Amino acid sequence: MARITLSKLRHSYYPNPSGPEDYALKEIDVTWKDGGAYALLGPSGCGKSTLLNIISGLLVPSEGQILFDDRDVTSLAPDQRNIAQVFQFPVIYDTMTVRQNLAFPLKNRGVDPARIEQRVAEIAAMLEVEDMLDTRASGLSPDNKQKISMGRGLVRDDVNVVMFDEPLTVIDPHLKWKLRSKLKELHQRVRATMIYVTHDQTEALTFADEVVVMQDGEVVQIGTPVELFERPQHTFVGHFIGSPGMNVLPCEMNGDRAIFHGHDVALEGPVTGQGGTIRLGVRPEHIDIQESGLPARVTKVSDVGRHFVVEAMVGDSAVKIVTEEHAPEQGTEVHLGFRPDKTRIYRDGWIATEARA
């Protein structure tokens, strides 16, 4: 396995890019530690696949370097990088048995037959497919086909990184959680460096130790699932992580005080910087319905099972609240309280408050 470093990486599909808008990937600096589980998370068109193709060697970046450990692999072909890749659609040979499919990457590299047999047995046990080793792949269900595709990526023990490109997209929803759990278990057992590319926050947050969130070709935050939820560094992260996402509300500043529809709102700490477009950010989970505070009118209540999602209007601003208590009825006049340690200012999208120690 390898530590992967992306240094000052930029890429444009234009031969002569003239400005930032011409770059599919803006400057990216990321390091993934050897043996870690990572996710690239972002909406379609944000640059995830471009970055994955650059790491795998299918694209040469316009600028910057890719290092495996301290070896510069920027200009190396895919077959010289020792990478395994699992795609959206299972890449297996339908005419071969499961055993033959798992053995193929090793057989193709001239590995000793005894070692092939041992390794195939190990991976089959991990995937819980021992009883189908002699079944032809064409007869497998879609989820089992994807399991075998994963196994083909994991069977080699000489790979630098295993990359998963939205591998659960074509899997039925009721089977996705099984494969997510299995993939997490596999990582814990083999300790391979794994990078999981997805637009699905649930897949990213349940698989990865650390998530790279991308928007419009740039990295807006790198952090653990807890860090992304608890302290989004950008309003996009607040929107994209969480269901419902973070409330991003218009406000004014009076010194270090935020004014929201004429009411003072306490913040997590001092405000930094000057100018720009100011917004107040607070997650629905960090708003309480209480006896006093911001006056609001309830416009909608949704019972989602584990809790209620309450939508209310403060002036002309819509605010969402998550509560596990009995929810007020639609049309009720209520008061809201924002938790000060979880309420912050964003300036031009980026966090602009310092957290108190």
Automatic annotation (TrEMBL):
Keywords: ATP-binding, Cell membrane, Membrane, Nucleotide-binding, Transport. The keyword Membrane applies. It holds the Pfam family TOBE_2. GO terms for cellular component: ATP-binding cassette (ABC) transporter complex, substrate-binding subunit-containing. CDD domains: ABC_Carb_Solutes_like. It comes from the Bacteria. Residues 4-241 form the ABC transporter domain. The keyword NADP does not apply. GO terms for molecular function: ABC-type ferric iron transporter activity; ATP binding; ATP hydrolysis activity. Belongs to the ABC transporter superfamily. This is ATP-binding cassette domain-containing protein. The lineage of its organism: Bacteria, Pseudomonadati, Pseudomonadota, Alphaproteobacteria, Rhodobacterales.
